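Record type: monomer structure entry
Structure origin: computed from sequence
Chain ID: A
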Amino acid sequence: MDTPLPLRRETLAQLPDSITVPTYTRDDLTPGIVHIGLGNFHRAHQAWYLHRLMQAGEAHDWAIIGAGVRAYDAAMRDRLAAQDYLTTLIELTPASTSAEVTGGMIDYLPIEEGNGALIAAMGAPEIRIVSLTVTEGGYYIDPVSHGFDADHADIKHDAAHPAAPRTAFGAIIAALRARRDAGLPAFTVQSCDNLQGNGAIVRQTVVGLARLSDPELADWIEANSSFPNSMVDCIVPATGPTEIALARDFGIDDAAPVSHENFRQWVIEDDFCAGRPAWEKVGATLTDDVHSYEAMKIRILNGGHQVIANVGELLGCTTIADCMADADIAAFFRKVERDGIVPYVDAVPGMAPVDYLDLIERRFANPAIKDTTRRVAFDGSSRHTGFILPIVREAVAAGGSTEALALVEALWARMCAGTREDGGVIEANDPFWDELHACALAAKTRPAAWLEQAHLYGDLAENTVFSEAFTGWLSAIWKDGSRATLRAFAT
């Protein structure tokens, strides 16, 4: 097609036959889900499962209303509203690409101070699930105790102003209060973020915040809402000019297309207080044992991302596939996973940890997926505390080796110094970059300074075996360089 068609309802029938488009009548869809934090991952993953159900003639009363609570969400809303909330999904394999248009989202709420529109939408009786993708760092968790962080400024604001909250959780509580007062049932709150025990964590945040201002409401929520745990998996790069150009190559002018790998997994605890779509009919796994699946994925995949992204930044590898194409990084990745992570992962039905590692290596090496090391390395203060340090603590408790993961942490410290090994600048890439950067520079001459960040490492600085391994690796990185240190580790 010489001139790409703008993505709209009225142009769907004119798109090339190679592109799958919605076969359901979108005017017949009614909402059942409000999703907060509507970015690329949600559209390539949870929304895709719902779209597939709708294509099969089901779940037409479960359409998605998108929502955000931050000012920057307004730009996404504007882009999606202009194209009738349709999304082009581009699947990338090493050998081919394909495209489909999904249409299970039917609205996106305006972004406004106090979140009045969001509270009203969640208070409507037809909404039975409120789902979230707000990043691993968005749940107000104390990084050391893993309890609810009631001292955060956002939480204090919402506790003092429950009718005009700043956070998604404050808005959820306000909507549940309105439903209780109107005699309506509670809805399910479903986290779709990469957190082990994400349902228990979102319960902790919602109930903990509610208890600060209305203990009786907190008790009602705890008794009537449900918070299912889940594991989500699909590699979804950020959208940029390349992805927009890919959509145009397919004949679609989409301002917000999403590219993704040819792999998805969704494992869900079947705990929904107000019903749910039949996701299992389109490939989701419903189980009472989400924990084993999520532990395998979070440790081997998400942890593995942190293993290679920091050193990838230091050595100038632009994408995760570039990292895997670098022989030194690939050997380092394999050894860290085999020695430092896989021993602390249990098998799941049909998959041993080492076989899952083989799968992850193939997925990371897919050159068609332009997943940047910068995106993967973002927010290390949440991702290392969530994905790496729990394994370190488990290894310490078991008397196992922490040598491999001490090197991973040393490479993170070196990256936070803010320069690549070729002298290039690594721009701020963490909500707490200033503090991390200062500690990283101090650790160049006194490595212990890095581990003394008690809000990240707790008492690990006092563990002689781990701290000595960390000190040795960070000293070697600064003295000999990252590549030489990787080779020394791998031999």
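Annotation 1: The longest helix spans residues 290-314.
Annotation 2: The chain has 21 helices and 13 strands.
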